[in-house]
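Fold this complex.
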Amino acid sequence: MSQADLTMQGHSTAAMAEPTFSVPAKKMAMWLFIIADTATFAGCLVAYGFIRNSTPDWPRPFHSITNVALMTLILLTSSLTMLIGVRSAQKGDKAGAFRWTMITAVAGILFAILHIREWMGMIGEGATLFHNPWGTPLFGSLFFSITGLHLLHVTGGVIALVAVGLRYKAGRYRADDLEITGLYWHFVDLVWMFVVPLVYLLNLAH
Amino acid sequence: MHDTSAHAVHHGVPTSFIRKHVFSLDHKVIGKQYYALALVAVVVGMVLSWIMRIHLGWNNFAIPGLHLLSSTGAPGNVLTPEYYLQLMTMHGTIMVFFVLTTAPFAAFGNFFLPIQVGAEDMPFPHFNMMSFWITFVAFLVLVSSFFVGDGPTLGGWTQYAPLSAVGAVAGPGQGLGVVLWASSIGIFCIGQLLGALNFITTTLDMRTKGMSLMRLPLSAWAWFITSIMGLTAFAVLMPACILLILDHVAGTSFFVASNLVINDQVLPHSGGSTLLWQHLFWFFGHPEVYIAIVPGLGIVSHVLITNMRRPLLSHRVIIYSMGSLAVLSYMVYGHHMFVSGMNPYSSLAFSFPTLVITIPSTIVVLIWLGSLYGSKLRINTASLFALGFISMFISGGVSGFFLAQPSIDIMLHATYFVVGHFHLVMAVAAIFGIFSGTYFWFPKMTGRMMNETLGRIHFWLSFVGTYCIFMPFHYLGIAGNVRRYQAFTDDYLIPLIPVHKFITIAALLTGLAQFIFIYNLIHSRFKGALAPDNPWEGTSLEWSTATPPPHNNFGDKMPVVYHDPYQYSVEGASTDYVMQTSPEQLKNAPDEK
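Structure:
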């Protein structure tokens, strides 16, 4: 469209009533944050891949996928409960929305507990940020950094879910706010779907 | 409240001093705060460069009082080699992060983006306030490294591993200094992320009635595109800084390879990769170059159009070119690593987009030159600095063609040729963009005009001085003068010392000329002639409101936009310019050529 067209259009409609992208600013900010956070996680995972590829005899210490499968199941389910919560809120079912949000938060806590239990197990076997019994120390550095960054996101997410849920219940926040928190929660879930194959499945013992 | 109506910013006129001037939520005050921060930072950075230049010209010259800065770094007021590098690192870091990123982007963008899109404020004023104060803390953390331990880090603004990651064994400042550096930059990243969130949502969500995206002035487009780059580039630098800090404080070795020997010590690290730091850093670092320069492209276009009294040959092509610069800037970062030991095929792969990125830059320049051709440019300080920007951008850009080719870069890499290249194309050019914006927008920001005579003197001294400083750098580089040397004692470098002396004198004089600007800035702020609402007869929204703009930018009535941003010399219009808010019907509005 030429400038003249734009000008003419501007005259005929006098003024466009709606902005081109009428996504509420808060929701857009969350999407933008997710883009930035994606870059952050991508940077970490690329660093992991870079070092893993350049290290001969990369350790493969994991013998079972039971725990990580359970964690994944819980996190995936929590995305579903989050979705139900948001749907309820959009339908105006306040009590239901609050309940499902809290269930999501509980699932997040469960995930964190399982994750920390796994960490403790590994630490018990002698793995730290700078040493581990299986080979290059970078394994521990990268494992704890990446899963730690994710765990930090889960923890933040649980806090956000509880805080937003309570305020929603008190009438200070609306369904939209729940949805925005939900966006974040799904993102944390999605990141985990990249962490599991790269950090766990690739490092399963043969 | 977050309904879809665009103007849902709700904070009243502040009354307390703290809310008004310190923790202000007003984007205009925050913009000025960023400007002030950049001004302090640029003076610090400039004084550091003076000290370095004096040392390079006259190796044993005692600079009175220098030992007060560091008694170990400058015993007898003469720099030690290490302290030279420490000052150089601080010069680079302060200039890149706290001047070139904050002034053209955060300062002007904060002040004018909401006004140019026709908004009362940004959507998240608290984030905006935090963005500034977080940046301020980052600056304090960085500067604090002068005064603790054995001073700031000496690793250069790129902080290459492994020397940056192994701690104090690598030299003064490589312990605590690096930790402070990485913390400062990590904090800075958070501040810029908050700023970018605000900029993007302001542009997409807060535009006033009739302000379609294509009706945004080019400066607003430039800030918008820059904030998209900032959103992802800083998000990668932050984890890189955290990993670097972990290498220091948690005993990891992400960036340190096995069996490294430094200063006769075998280091306990093992398994990391030194190249990894370069990849992570330059994935941020190259977009950062464009974060510094793209706002300048927008500001200069905006200033030139207003003073040419006609639009550029194409509005859209400038926008598309800036967009392509942003996209390509992520694909070229490997050209900083041609000699780092990457696979040579990677060099080839990075060389190609590097040459491609010159195309949008060239298109922008050609559009400027083509639009200037035959125009009756109004000569004032702002338009002079805009012309200066174009000149610097071309001069610095041309040397980029040489450096983009791995075979030539092998010879020129890490010489003064590179230093001359990036100082002209991104540093001085961006600074000229800042000057142009300052002289142009100062009346709107403060309500007073700047002194035109002093401005022109400032321009000519800066313009000539800058070329005297940076053109010889190319000669030095081709002659084999490696950068980051603190003295030239080798046979083949000794004949170059007179060139260095010339550069030092030019740098001192050009630097002194900047005090004319600072005097002009401060004097005009209080004693300058009162500015009318539209001193340059501009068309965009910032000129349709009062000078200085009221707290909510437009008073009681939000503006309605009827026209493209640059309706100058329209045939049949009553004046030679038609403001965006003018409801006047245009029969012969100039079409895009």
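The radius of gyration of chain A is 22 Å.
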